[in-house]
């Protein structure tokens, strides 16, 4: 039995999971996303959390709400990027941002070490 308590996902995490599923082709153009209430119950979150996740995907242009029917993966117009391509591009961008963040963290540490070395040398020459 798992001794750790299962943590419920937040809206950002739910949106990321759905975005990845769109990128993988699990949900294609005109596919309906899970109904908000049932999905919220399945995930153990509030309906508002799921609605917020869907709103994020709508803001990104990946899905559209259809009044009284649900939330669907957008079917792109001719010449427009597909939701799958857009979701994959967003996933690629997340990977690149993580790489750049790691590089920046490394750079900050290198600058700190350099400042410490320069400070030590300046202290030695001033003594």
From TrEMBL:
<keyword id="KW-0663">Pyridoxal phosphate</keyword>
<dbReference type="InterPro" id="IPR036390">
    <property type="entry name" value="WH_DNA-bd_sf"/>
</dbReference>
<dbReference type="Pfam" id="PF00392">
    <property type="entry name" value="GntR"/>
</dbReference>
<feature type="coiled-coil region">
    <location>
        <begin position="90"/>
        <end position="124"/>
    </location>
</feature>
<dbReference type="InterPro" id="IPR036388">
    <property type="entry name" value="WH-like_DNA-bd_sf"/>
</dbReference>
<dbReference type="InterPro" id="IPR000524">
    <property type="entry name" value="Tscrpt_reg_HTH_GntR"/>
</dbReference>
<dbReference type="InterPro" id="IPR051446">
    <property type="entry name" value="HTH_trans_reg/aminotransferase"/>
</dbReference>
<keyword id="KW-0175">Coiled coil</keyword>
<keyword id="KW-0805">Transcription regulation</keyword>
<feature type="region of interest" description="Disordered">
    <location>
        <begin position="65"/>
        <end position="86"/>
    </location>
</feature>
<protein>
    <submittedName>
        <fullName>Regulatory protein, gntR family</fullName>
    </submittedName>
</protein>
<dbReference type="GO" id="GO:0003677">
    <property type="term" value="F:DNA binding"/>
</dbReference>
<keyword id="KW-0238">DNA-binding</keyword>
<dbReference type="GO" id="GO:0003700">
    <property type="term" value="F:DNA-binding transcription factor activity"/>
</dbReference>
<feature type="domain" description="HTH gntR-type">
    <location>
        <begin position="8"/>
        <end position="76"/>
    </location>
</feature>
<keyword id="KW-0804">Transcription</keyword>
């Amino acid at each position: 039995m798992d001794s750790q308590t299962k943590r419920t996902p937040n809206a950002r995490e739910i949106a990321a999971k759905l975005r990845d599923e769109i990128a993988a082709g699990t949900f294609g153009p005109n596919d309906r996303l899970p109904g908000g209430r049932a999905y919220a119950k399945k995930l153990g979150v509030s309906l508002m959390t799921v609605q917020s996740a869907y709103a994020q995907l709508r803001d990104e242009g990946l899905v559209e709400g259809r009044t009284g029917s649900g939330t669907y993966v957008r079917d792109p117009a001719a010449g427009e990027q597909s939701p799958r391509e857009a979701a994959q591009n967003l996933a690629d961008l997340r990977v690149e941002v993580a790489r750049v963040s790691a590089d920046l963290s490394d750079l900050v540490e290198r600058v700190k070490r350099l400042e410490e070395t320069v400070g030590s040398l300046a202290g030695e020459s001033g003594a």
